[in-house]
Each structure stands twice: as structure tokens, then as C-alpha cells.
User: Fold these one by one.
Assistant:
Number 1:
Amino acid sequence: MIGEDATARWWSIGELARASGVTVRTLRHYDEIGVLRSGERATSGHRRYTAADLRRLYRVRSLRALGMSLDEIKEVLASSPEDPAAMRALLRTQLRQLTFQAEQTQQLIEQIHGLLRQLDEASMPDPDQFMTTLEMISMLETYFTQEQREELARRRGELGAEAVEEAKTHFVELVEQLLRHVQDGTPADDPQVQELVRRWDELATPFHAEDARGEQTKAAARRMWQEHRDQLSARLPWPAEKMAELLAYLERARTTAH
């Protein structure tokens, strides 16, 4: 049972594990490495977790969900005091990530609703519709590891919805400008083209990590596009052939960059 004394409320390690979904073994590991130590000990030596410990565990779990390692979390907790401002910043970041995940889930919900509507009309959905749904579920899992998906979601959540929408607008503008150069046959080493390519690459940078992990997610994204060009292009306002020409043009521009 949750313990109480005259001044404080506390939880045993088993109670905290059951309530939080973290195993007793994990809580003990957190204690050993200094990520989360119980604020009190009973006379028997058993750990007793306080309300402050509970709030710290919430921060640990939230930061883990955002893709941070335990070492990184330990540094964040050491440098960031437990105050309303720090908790507010964490909750806002967590909310942005959950919003992004909800958007992805909503796309699947709408796709599955479409399948159900056809079944309600006593007609079996076309195999292509099932395939599209399966692709939406599996495409990210195929090309990105769980860690990479978490990192992409975390960075998108940190950027916020406004910045993401702004990036989409800039992306459309860059595609239109570059496609005109492709159509006009502008040399890939033309200064104007090189500047557009630089802006293209800069646009994607905030969505990826700045170290080798970022290069890996960029490579995975390129591979996903190359192997699923038609399906992905179907969601864009430009023909798949045009986008293929554009991406080839971008590669030529990068290889001829001064």
C-alpha cells in the first residue's frame, strides 16, 4: 500500500514499478547509475520513493521516449532543476511528439475507415487498397530502425508544427524552381542551381541528427524513395517521372559542386 507519514507520501519499489510500467529491475538499475535514487529508506533498508522521485521518474521516461540515452538523461537532469518551467518545456516537447504520432495514426485510421466503408457496401476492397494500408504500416519499419524512427519523431516534435509547415512550403517552392531548371536544361553546375541545391539540403538538416546517425537516416530516406518512388509520388502534386528526374538532377548538381 502507498505509505504516508505525518509530512510526506511515499511508494515502495514494487508499487512504483506497477504504477509506472517500469520493472523493479529497471528501477534498481536507475538507482545504481544515479538516474533515479529513492529519496528515503525504510528502517528495514527498503527503498521508499517520494513525490519528487515520482516526478523525476516521469522526466526520465519522457526523455527516453524522445530517444535520449540514459547518459544523456542523467546530464539533462543534472543541469536542469526540477521546477515548473523545466517540466513545462518537457511536457510541451512530449505533446509535440505525441501530436506527430497521432497524425500518423490518423492517416492509418482514415485508410482503414475506407476499407470498412467498402465492406459495409457489401464489396470487398480492391487488393491495391489493402496493399496501400500495409505499405503505410510497414514502410517506415522497413527502412528505419526503431531508434531512427524515435529520433525523427523527436526532432520533428522539437521543431514544432509551425516550423514543419514552413518547411513544407519551402519544399514546394524549391521543387517548382528546380523542375523549371530541369525542363530548361540548365547545367547542374550553374550557380543558381547550386544555390537551390544548397537550400534543399539545408531544409532537411533540422530533421536529422547532426552526427553519423543523421547521415544514416538520410540514406534510409533516399533508399525508401528510390524503392517506393511511385507510391510516395502519388501523395505529391508532381508526376513520379518528374520527381525521378529532379532527384537525378540533384545528384548531378552535388557531384559537380565547386
Number 2:
Amino acid sequence: MGSRRPTLEAVAARARVSRATVSRVVNGQTTVDPDIRDAVLRAVAELGYVPNSAARSLVTRQTDSIALVVSEPPTRVFSDDPLFSLVVRTVSSELESAGKQAVLMLASSPQAQARVEDYVSGGHVDGIMLLSMHGADPLPGAVARMDVPAVSYGRPAVDLPHVDNDNVGGAGQAVRHLVGGGRRRIAAIAGPQDMTAGQDRLTGYRDALRSADRRSIVAVGDFTRASGATAMRHLLGDDPDLDAVFAANDLMAIGALQALRKAGRRVPDDVAVVGFDDIEAASFTDPPLTTVRHPVVEQATAMVGLVLTPPGERESDRVVLPTELVVRDSA
């Protein structure tokens, strides 16, 4: 027979302290005398004691798990869009550094959304982070009513703590760059209008054009490469004389570049193109893509910091990070 797993009582006996004292030490409480704490930790190491996380969670009411909920289907999350993998990787790393575990949950259907609500309200996680929410999603409103810390990546449609980037200002930067380059007929490939990022980037485009006394020319995509190509073809059909396009993300901009090439338009000579996000592929398009840098890693890191910080200790429930125009050869 194998040796029995060391118990809390065995550690207490080895350290010559009470079981309650050992419990306080292994649960990270700071009220224990340093010398006694050292003795307990020595006993833990000598005996090879491993705390029972299930039992500990019953006492502390903490699971050390944080849910990351993505309101997209698997085909979108595990696609060529690097946003999702970068956010998941950053969140997992930041939580691991804090001694926490990320629980990835996809919620693109009413059934999946109901399961997420049940899971979170059942006390299985200590917090929840929301990513890629759409206007009709019930989750932001549902978690806002729960007694669990919740933070959104991006501005949600309801009143909820969030970390966003300056979508309006970033889009405005892109359009002003095109205007400053002498472009007259500047179109936009907008993102989904049931997502606040899509709405805000379109607002920034329209505000900047209005200030420059230019008219809006808009087609709507869904943040995918294929939708960018389709939207670009429609824009060329509607206004063959357009000489610039702002795409609300880089994948749609890459699709637009492909459509322009097939239509015989030279970039940037005939049509200048600016994207948004500054994904890795933006440096390797032909020509390299001018774009607005969306600080994904910093935004995901700030989201983790916010969800792990007790509400009363936060400087703010709303964080907006700056964007930066990255000028390359496409505009």
C-alpha cells in the first residue's frame, strides 16, 4: 500500500501548533506570527502536505477560478482573428501569476448563455470577464445583477466595469491622416453595429469626416477578412471614384486590399487603406498596412487587474487606453 497523504493534523503536530493555526497559514492569512508561520511552512515542506482545494473553498468561499466568457461561436474564436488567442493567452498568464485559474466559456447561443449564468451564479468562479459582447447578449445585464466581480473587455451596452481602448479617437486619427494626405472620397468598412467597438469606430470616422467637410460612404462588415473583401467590392460599385478607405479592423482591411488588387486598383496610388488593431499580419501585407494600434495585451492585463481588485479599492471602474496611428505604406 502507498503512504497516506499528509493531513492538516500531521502538519500541526510536526510544527507544534494548533490545527487552526496551520489552516490560517496555508490559506494565506497574515495574522500569524512570522516565527510560527515559518515553522508551519517547514512542516508543510518536510511532510509534503498539499492543501485540499475543495475543502479550502468551502471555508474561504473562493474557487481561485475566473471565467473568461466569449460571446462567439468556436469557428470565430478559433479562426484567423488573433484577438481571441492573444486575449486568452494574456488573461491566462496574468491569472496564473496571481495564483488563479482561467475558465474559458463560449456563449454564442441562448442555451450556452443560460449555462454560463447558472455556472457563475452557482459560485463556481470568483469573477467573470466578458469578451466580444453583442447588443442582444443577455449576459452583461445578468452578471451585473449577480454578487460576483464582473469586467468587460470593451465598453458594454449596460453599466458594467470595463476596460476599453479609444475607438472613437483612434478612428478619427486614421481619417485625419487620410485627409491630410489629400484624399477626398474616404469610405469606411464599419464593424458590426451590434458591438460597441463597431459603433464607436464608425462614430470616430463620421466625426472626423464631418470636421473635414467630407461625406460618409459606408459599408458594414463583421470583422472578418471575407466581409472586408465583400464590403470593398460594394463600395467600388457604389462609388468608383473613392480614393481611400478606413476599415474598422485589420482583417477587413486585408480583405479590402485583396479586393482592390483584383479590381486593378493600386494601393496607395489609387486607393489608400487604413486598418485598426495592428495585428502581426499588418506588417506583412502588400503593401504593409497603415493602421491604428489597439493595445490588446495592455487591455487584457488591465481587465484582469480590475476583476481581481475589490471594488472599493479600484481607482476607477472604467479604463480607456490610448490608441496610436502606425504609418506604413498603404496610406
Number 3:
Amino acid sequence: MGDVVGKPGVTAVRTLLPKLIARHSVDLVVANAENSEGGAGISPESAEALLASEVNLLTSGNHFWTKKQILPWVQDNPNLLLRPANYPKGAPGKGHTVIQTPDGRKLGVLNLEGRVNMKPLDNPFTVAPELVAELRKQTPCILVDMHCEATSEKNAMGAHLDGKVSAVVGTHTHVQTADERILPGGTAYITDVGMCGPLDSVIGMKKELSIERFITLRHVPYELAKNLVYLQGVIIDMDDKTGKARSIERIREHLPGT
């Protein structure tokens, strides 16, 4: 699932996800939680609320560090919440892990952050192959969350890892794209899986405040929007033996009453 934005996004996940799991016979769920506390950052409370909603693993991005109270929590729960793997050595938490179904089928998950119009982190294109090789020692099924601004950087990572991982999915922009496909090497790809949060907004925030920023060029504190809340993401079917993707389907579910 795409970036979970504040209380509206958490509520959408809590309400809609169990139904989606049952309807589509979903085995494992991964959600990007980096905006789940107040629209920017993660708290122990927002992380635990999502994990209690049948999410198996949380990923993140550049807002991982916004709420300092998450740092002790992630050190105690390193396999429940990932931060991008290409932060410098010594950063709290970890950037890749393996989760598994009750019957023992494994999924490797790698969290990366892009560099175009973002922080000058370690190069994700050189970090990824080494960590993918490490994950492949345990399972051929690997999901990559590529958290970045530029569509070109996400597309390039999809091509870079095609045939080496099961899926490369983009997060960060909060806008779901319609380019989901299976790449030639068998990797499922989408530029951005979207957002779990209010669509009657500017990427989750009240429209009038964002417009005021663009007009005045002054800092205006953001506030979460509340209306037209959706859960957005993708469902990917993977071959357990080869790790190749069979299909990728976009999901867009409206939270009733919003």
C-alpha cells in the first residue's frame, strides 16, 4: 500500500484492508508508513495501529526521522519497520528483511530512497544489487519499495533490477500512476502505488493551505484533509519457485462516509 497519511489513512487501512485480504486471498501485506503520524513521520502508536490491521511489514522514506519517538521503537522492532537501506552506516534500524506466511513461504523486502531532488544518500543503484543478492539466499521472491520524487529514477530502478526481483514499486509522490506492468525479465513494476488518505486534498493536506504556499511563497503549516479517503496500492501475484511476477493489479478502495 502507498504512503499512509495520518489518521484518515490509518482508518482506511484498518477498515478496508481486512476485506481486501479476504476478497483477494492476500498472503502478505506491506505498507509505507512514513506519513502515518500527523501526515509526516511515524510514531509507535501509528506503527502499531497499522500492524494490528493485518499489515505484516512497514516501509518508509525521507520522513522516517521526523518523529524522534520512533527511533527507540524501531531498534526494538527492526523487522517490523524498515528505513531506506541507502542511509549511511550507523543509521538506526535496517533497510531490508524477510517476512513469511504462516506456512513458511518467504518474501524479501528492500526499502530504498532516491536522490534526484532529495538527499545525497548512498547510491541506491549500487546498494541494491548487493542487498538483493543477500535476500536471494533466502528467497527468490523480493519486493522493492523505491521511495523517490523522480519518475525517471523509479523507472530506471525497475529496469536495473528487472529479472533480479519480483517487484519494484514506487512510493513518495502520493499520486497513483496507471503504468503497472510486468517488465521483460518478469519483474512487476509501477511508478507510484499512490496514497492511503484523503484525495480531496493536495497530496493529503488541506488544499487551501497548499495553494496559499504557492501564491505567497511563505511557509504555511500544513493540516490534514479529511474528505474522500481512499486506500490505494497494488496486489502482486508471484511465483514462489522462480520469484517472477505473474500479475500486478492496482487497488483503489473508497472509505465509506468520507
